[in-house]
Design brief:
Radius of gyration: 13 Å
CATH architecture: Orthogonal Bundle
CATH superfamily: EF-hand
CATH topology: Recoverin, domain 1
Shape: globular
Order of helices and strands: HHHEHHEH
Structural class: mainly alpha
Distance between the termini: 27 Å
Number of strands: 2
Largest sheet: 2 strands, antiparallel
Strand order of the largest sheet: 1-2
């Protein structure tokens, strides 16, 4: 599972996503809203299988939690949250 999240994180750092007009926050990783906006070719608010790019193509089924053949903003946020490294203890 960790390997899957690592590959998905590669998508989030891909040059295509990073090249968007909106700048990512200080962390440098594009936000889910930016990723959906970039990949959602028909502008219906979802990433369909044929709109997915990069590693998201391979891991589409993992992110598509409700198995409706499209990734919603909520599903993408959930996947990104799951792969976020834990906060260091203070």
């Amino acid at each position: 599972m960790l390997k899957s999240f690592t590959a998905l994180s590669a998508l989030l750092l891909s040059p295509a996503v990073m090249a968007q007009d909106a700048s990512p926050p200080s962390g440098g990783t594009p936000q889910p809203e930016q990723i959906v906006a970039f990949m959602d070719a028909d502008k219906d608010g979802f990433i369909a299988k044929d709109e997915a790019q990069g590693p998201l193509v391979q891991y589409f089924g993992m992110v598509d939690a409700d198995k409706d053949d499209k990734i919603s903003l909520v599903e993408l946020k959930t996947a990104m949250e799951a792969m976020r490294p834990p906060e260091p203890a203070q």
